[in-house]
Design goal:
With about 400 residues, this protein is an all-beta fold. It has one helix at about 390-400; strands at about 5-10, 15-20, 40-45, 50-60, 70-80, 95-105, 110-115, 125, 130-135, 140-145, 150, 155-165, 170-180, 190-195, 210-220, 230-240, 250-260, 275-280, 285-290, 295-300, 305-310, 325-330, 335-340, 340-350, 360, 365, 370, 375-385. The strands form 6 sheets. Strands 14, 15, 16, 17, 18, 19, 20, 21, 22, 23, 24, 25 and 28 form a 13-stranded antiparallel β-sheet that branches. Strands 2-1-3-4 form a 4-stranded antiparallel β-sheet, with no helix packed on it. It has a 4-stranded antiparallel β-sheet with strand order 9-7-12-13, with no helix packed on it. The relative contact order is 0.11.
């Protein structure tokens, strides 16, 4: 019997397909076909002696228009927060995101690019347009983008960024992703100023109330968390914050101290205030530590007319050269006293109103704006709030060692 081959030809005469099988079905790929064009296929048999026998019927088909590329944003991953590596996006940081695009269309998206925008002015994009390359059908490509968060960004703010995906032919798709600006600090609500001394200067970490160094203040690596730096006050050194003013109807002051010395005598009076921590700036009380009438270390607070010591002495002497957290809250006429995150006393006494005095840290100002009663020792993470913190919030600051 003569050998034979099955062949199929397409009416554009571009290709002949041969299948050397006697029985069964066969498939073959046809290349170089044009979209939206009618073709017919005719089967024939070619014997080894050259004889050709055509099948009486042909099959026609019409090629479809291939679906265009269709890009979509399928995944956004935070690569780094671009700041203190706490996993949060905070003010004054440059977070890096990985954006993954997919092509669900029928053709390749050629030379695809992405650009980003937002209506929130605290976010900027250092690179306007980012190339993501060619994306074949049913495949993904990933691009890395960097954002910049302004220093004045408001905590607990949700930001939506618009993503514009563009192909070389001008075809455009859009998407969006969101993230939250979070505080890098514990208990951020109501935080008015924070002196963490990480930059070894008198600047407010929040960028609102920068101060000035007066006298001898140096910076050391001892801190409550064993990270960063603290300020060391000696030889009558202190800080002034001229811009801090206003009538604070509520307040909280919290500060980490490490000292072996408490100046002053055995009573806390108007002229003998012990060791001052903060004073002035329209605050309703002044705040310090002192040796009171029983010669035990107490928290000293004062009005215009005098100084009042906490009724209970601090649970542990503070002048032991160890880090301790002192916190006071004041609302109406009630003042609460905290030592190492725990409430140990509360007192009621009248308000004060010394708005003509500059806010000082590490010294008390007398009636003539002359500093006195200086603090000696290390200080870190001085926090001032325009509200009263709860017991649990005070403990949270203590536990965070921040």
């Amino acid at each position: 019997m003569l050998g034979y081959q099955f062949h199929a030809t397409v009416n554009d005469n571009k290709t002949s397909y041969g299948i050397r099988r006697q029985t069964g079905t066969f498939t073959s790929t046809m290349n170089n076909l044009q979209a939206n064009t009618t073709y017919w296929v005719r089967l024939y048999v070619k014997y080894s002696n050259g004889q050709v026998e055509y099948h009486p019927n042909s099959v026609s088909f019409n090629t479809l228009v291939p679906a265009s590329a269709a890009l979509s944003l399928v995944k956004v991953v935070l690569v780094t927060d671009g700041g203190n590596n706490d996993g949060k996006i905070s003010p004054n940081e440059s977070p890096v995101f990985a954006l993954t695009l997919t092509n669900k269309g029928g053709t390749t998206a050629n030379n695809a690019t992405i650009s980003l925008s937002t209506n929130n002015s605290v976010v900027s994009f250092p690179t306007a347009v980012i190339s993501i390359g060619n994306i074949a059908p049913n495949t993904e490509n990933t691009a890395t983008i960097t954002l910049r968060i302004a220093t004045n960004a408001i905590w607990d703010t949700n930001i939506t960024s618009n993503v514009r995906m563009t192909e070389a032919n001008g075809q455009v798709w859009s998407g969006e992703f969101s993230f939250k600006i979070e505080s890098p600090y514990v208990v951020p609500n109501g935080l008015l100023l924070l002196y963490d001394f990480e930059n070894q200067n008198a600047n407010d970490a929040l960028g609102k109330y920068n101060g000035a160094i007066n006298g001898n203040i140096t910076f050391q690596t001892t801190t409550p968390s064993n990270r960063g730096t603290s300020a060391y006050f000696s030889n009558n050194g202190y800080l002034t914050v001229a811009a801090l003013n206003g009538n604070f109807t509520e307040q909280t002051v919290s500060v980490w101290l490490k000292t072996s010395r408490i100046t002053g005598g055995t009573s806390a009076t108007t002229t003998n205030r012990g060791t001052a921590i903060v004073d002035g700036g329209c605050f309703r009380i002044r705040f310090g530590i002192g040796l009171c009438s029983d010669n035990r270390t107490r928290i000293a607070t004062g009005t215009n007319t005098g100084i009042t010591c906490s009724q209970q002495a601090m649970p542990t002497a503070i002048n032991d050269n160890q880090w301790h957290l002192l916190t006071i809250t004041q609302q109406s006429t009630e003042t609460k006293y905290y030592f190492d995150g725990t409430l140990f006393d509360r007192r009621n006494f009248g308000d004060r109103n010394d708005c003509n005095k500059i806010f000082t840290i590490g010294a008390t100002l007398n009636d003539f704006n002359t500093e006195t009663s200086y603090y000696t020792g290390n200080m870190d993470n001085l926090r001032v709030y325009n509200r009263v913190l709860t017991d649990s919030e005070v403990r949270e600051i203590f536990n965070a060692k921040q």
